[in-house]
Specification:
The chain is of the alpha/beta class. The protein is built from ten helices and ten strands. Strand 1, helix 3 and strand 2 form a beta-alpha-beta unit.
């Protein structure tokens, strides 16, 4: 699975780094990453000169991460709930991983990891077919196996709401202020095989029995053109820890 994540999940654009730094408003020297996976986001921040501590509970993911990140990156095998408070960071961030963290105590724990005035960032988003006609035939091919392949909002926020999760939780949290949401627009082109590979890393497909998973990928592959246009917009949520932390 770690190899599939590395091969098929797209990386993050430098515009995302610019958005986070513009929000911070000052140079950020250290960052803690939650659920780093194979290090797609780790690379973005580490290559811009930030000292990143990447945490990840899965050993295979961390092994893959270490192959691709600068030597300056420190790795810790731990779930977010097991990260010990003590060291504080200018930035704490999660890249398409926050929904794996336990809701209870999430924000008090997060705030305790930030320097005064430090920034929290969460970013990610679904990878969707940009052509409505292709999306329609793929949805029909998938229908006998899956009604939807998207991750539902962890707090039940409807998709039409202006503020999405985790911004909704951050707005209610006593530990954070100045909550913002923005979108980094992105379009990608990938081969049909690469698109199927990317689907193979999504939880909705991972939980299917292996036989059904092979069937649904076969059905989707049959209706795909040779290359597909992908809308892979990155939704970013940003917040500041209260200064009195």
């Amino acid at each position: 699975m770690a190899e599939a994540y590395e091969r098929f999940r797209p990386g993050y654009p430098v515009e995302l780094f610019d958005v986070v730094m513009a929000y911070a408003g000052h140079p950020v020297r250290s960052a803690l990453e939650i659920g780093a996976g194979t290090g797609k986001a780790t690379r973005l921040f580490a290559r811009q000169g930030i000292t990143v501590t990447a945490t990840e509970p899965d050993g295979a993911m961390l092994d893959e991460l270490r192959k691709h990140v600068p030597a300056s990156v420190r790795t810790v095998r731990a779930a977010f709930e097991d990260v010990r408070p003590g060291e504080k960071y200018g930035l704490v961030y999660a890249a398409a991983a926050l929904h794996w963290t336990a809701p209870e105590g999430r924000w008090t724990r997060m705030a305790a990891l930030l320097e005064p005035g430090g920034v929290f960032a969460s970013f990610g988003g679904p990878i969707q077919l940009a052509d409505p006609a292709v999306e329609k035939v793929v949805r029909a091919a998938r229908a006998p196996f899956l009604e939807s392949d998207e991750i539902p909002s962890p707090d039940g926020t409807p998709p039409e709401c202006d503020m999405q999760w985790p911004g909704t939780e951050l707005q209610w949290s006593e530990w954070f202020t100045d909550v913002q949401q923005c979108v980094v627009e992105r379009r990608l082109t990938m081969s049909a095989r690469e698109y199927i590979g990317q689907l193979s890393t999504i939880s909705a497909y991972l939980v299917l029995p292996a036989f059904e998973r092979e069937q649904v990928f076969s059905q989707i592959m049959q209706v795909l053109p040779r290359t597909v246009e992908i809308a892979a917009d990155v939704t970013v949520h940003l917040a500041r820890g209260h200064h009195e932390q």
